[in-house]
């Protein structure tokens, strides 16, 4: 699996890095102190702690490249982090310590190399999210199946956290300026981390199923919904798939509007539904019935209004 994912990321322009497992004690906060694995007789303060997170080594590599005029970064790393159970205070007890395996991704700088026919766009959260989803899909995992939450902490200015049965599977977001400035990095750094042990446990239980490609054409229909601002895109897709699980093959969000001409606390989502019948060509009557069912479901369950 490691070789498979490494080849996949390399094909998308990523370079693999291998960072030192020892980091400086200046990188971590006092809050993390109780869970750290410290070296008894370190060679220096810069090599005194076993890394609790892959972030620091990756930022050192990014800073090294930026200082040498290589500002467009796409890195990945497989490795381990090291931790200690807080409830066990005996530092000589080997059972106090444990390690976890990870896959980390970093992107920063420009999205594309300078070219006459490409826009000079910077990297962003959604670009890294697409790479993360490519990795998960390659493993046969659908990212939409997980519980996600928006977080903000000392590491991230903002991030999405995904869990499987209360265990963190992955996190992705924009690293905070507080961290990047420690490494004299003055550009945005987007970071994703996968709990490889948790991922591997899911992959082992996955059953891969194949279906034949439909011989009948797909149909697309759009809906513009006025909804409360706290309604998520995931909630909209869940309602749609539960309402018409047989015929909806894909859902795409192609427009979001918040601002003038909308009530306070409201937002407008424009969704595109791809409909497909594997047994026959869909009729207009069948399509209209499906769309009416979706409209009724959205109106009843979340109080949506059709625009």
Say which CATH homologous superfamily of the largest domain is assigned: Bira Bifunctional Protein, Domain 2
* Poorly predicted runs: none
Specify the CATH architecture of the largest domain: 2-Layer Sandwich
The count of strands amounts to 14
Proportion of residues in helical segments: 25-40%
- How much of the polypeptide forms β-strand, as a percent range? 25-35%
Radius of gyration: 23 Å
Describe what you observe in this structure:
The structure is a single chain. This protein is an alpha+beta fold. It has two domains: 2-205, Bira Bifunctional Protein, Domain 2 (BirA Bifunctional Protein, domain 2, 2-Layer Sandwich), CATH 3.30.930.10; 219-306, Ferrodoxin-fold anticodon-binding domain (Alpha-Beta Plaits, 2-Layer Sandwich), CATH 3.30.70.380. It has seven helices and 14 strands. It has helices spanning 2-11, 55-66, 125-138, 177-180, 196-205, 233-243, 284-302, and strands at residues 15-16, 22-23, 37-38, 49-50, 73-84, 97-108, 147-151, 156-164, 167-175, 189-195, 219-228, 248-257, 266-275, 305-306. The chain has a seven-stranded mixed sheet with strand order 1-5-6-10-9-8-7, sandwiched between helices. Strands 12-13-11-14 form a four-stranded antiparallel sheet, with helices on one face. Strand 7 (147-151) and strand 8 (156-164) form a beta hairpin.
Write the layout of secondary structure elements.
Layout: H1 2-11, E1 15-16, E2 22-23, E3 37-38, E4 49-50, H2 55-66, E5 73-84, E6 97-108, H3 125-138, E7 147-151, E8 156-164, E9 167-175, H4 177-180, E10 189-195, H5 196-205, E11 219-228, H6 233-243, E12 248-257, E13 266-275, H7 284-302, E14 305-306
Parallel strand pairs: 1-5
Antiparallel strand pairs: 2-4, 3-4, 5-6, 6-10, 7-8, 8-9, 9-10, 11-13, 11-14, 12-13
Helix pairs in contact: 6-7
């Amino acid at each position: 699996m490691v070789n498979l994912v490494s080849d996949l990321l390399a094909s998308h322009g990523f370079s693999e890095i291998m960072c030192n497992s020892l980091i400086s004690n200046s990188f971590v906060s006092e809050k993390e102190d109780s869970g750290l694995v410290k070296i008894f007789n370190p060679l220096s303060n810069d090599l005194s702690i076993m890394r609790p997170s892959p972030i620091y080594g990756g930022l050192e590599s990014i800073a090294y490249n930026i200082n040498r005029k290589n500002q467009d970064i796409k890195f990945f790393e497989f490795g381990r982090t090291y931790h200690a159970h807080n409830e066990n205070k005996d530092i000589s007890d080997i059972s106090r310590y444990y390690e976890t395996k990870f896959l980390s991704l970093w992107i920063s700088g420009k999205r594309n190399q300078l070219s006459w026919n490409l826009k000079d766009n910077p990297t962003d959260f959604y670009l890294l999210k697409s790479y993360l989803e490519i990795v998960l899909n390659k493993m046969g995992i659908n990212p939409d199946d997980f519980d996600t939450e928006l977080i903000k902490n000392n590491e991230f200015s903002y991030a999405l956290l995904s869990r499987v049965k209360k265990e963190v599977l992955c996190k992705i977001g924009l690293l905070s300026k507080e961290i990047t400035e420690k490494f004299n990095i003055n550009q945005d750094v987007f970071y994703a981390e996968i709990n490889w042990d948790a991922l591997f446990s899911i992959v082992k239980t996955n059953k891969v199923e194949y279906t034949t490609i439909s011989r009948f054409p797909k149909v697309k229909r759009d809906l513009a919904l006025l909804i409360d601002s706290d309604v998520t895109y995931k909630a909209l897709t869940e309602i749609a798939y539960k309402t018409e699980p047989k015929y909806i093959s894909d859902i795409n969000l192609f427009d979001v509007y918040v601002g003038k001409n909308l009530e306070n606390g409201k937002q407008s989502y424009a969704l595109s539904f791809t409909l497909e019948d594997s047994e026959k060509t869909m009729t207009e009557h069948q399509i209209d019935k499906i769309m009416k069912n979706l409209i009724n479901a959205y109106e009843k369950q979340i109080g949506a209004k059709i625009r």
